[in-house]
Every structure is written in C-alpha cells, then in structure tokens.
Amino acid sequence: MTISRKDILTHISNLGQLLNEAKVVPFTVNGIPAGFQFIQILPGSLFQKLGLVAGDVVQEVNEKKVVGAEDMTGLFQTLQTASSMTITILRGGKVEKLQYQFI
C-alpha cells in the first residue's frame, strides 16, 4: 500500500487529534502482553488510511514486537521518518502483514 508522507505528517502533527482518531487497548494472551487492539477507528483517520479496522491487534512493527506504550511511540516515529514499514496484525484470528511505502 502506498501512502502520502504529507498525509501522514498532517495527521501526526496534531498528536491530541491523532489520539482521538482511535481507541486502543492493550491485548494479552494468557496474561502476557501481545500487542494493542483497536476497539474503534474513526472514518478518515490515519489508522483507517493504513487499512486498519476495529478489532485488529497490532503485534509487530518492522518485525519488532509491540508490547508497551513505548513501542507504539516507535510506530509514530517510524511513520515520520521511514520510507517503508511493515505491520504485523492479528485480524479475525489470522496473522497478516501489512506493507506500506511512503511517498
């Protein structure tokens, strides 16, 4: 999937608004952190533009496990600077990889 860097920076520049674009909760398996689950994603949000849907669990960004808030911060830093990114999600009980190119 190709996404405009300008579009990403527009969303990221207002962190307060960005944090209101989705509701995210920690996701655990047998009490062990295993990612973050999107409970709600607003239409037109950056998260929707990334192809994420309510119920998705982000487990990895660029093959690095996402288990704490600092890992989610890493996701936003990657969006700001990287030319590409891969997110591993759990969707409907199946693991999927979403690949992005930023132009």
Explain what you see.
- The chain is of the alpha+beta class and 103 residues long.
- The chain has a single domain (2-102), classed as PDZ domain (Pdz3 Domain), CATH 2.30.42.10.
- Helix content is 30%, strand content 43%.
- The chain contains four helices and seven strands.
- The protein has helices spanning 5-12, 15-20, 46-49, 69-81, and strands at residues 2-3, 22-29, 32-41, 57-61, 64-65, 84-91, 94-102.
- Strands 1, 2, 3, 4, 5, 6 and 7 form a seven-stranded mixed sheet that branches.
- It is globular, with a radius of gyration of 13 Å.
- The termini are close together.
- The model has no long low-confidence stretch (mean pLDDT 90).
How many strand elements?
7
CATH class: Mainly Beta
Distance between the termini: 11 Å
Percent helix: 25-40%
**Which structural class do you get from the secondary structure elements?**
alpha+beta
Give Rg in angstroms. 13 Å
- Give the mean pLDDT: 90
Quaternary structure state of the chains depicted: single chain
Main β-sheet description: 7 strands, mixed
Counted by DSSP, the helix tally is 4
What number of domains? 1
CATH topology: Pdz3 Domain
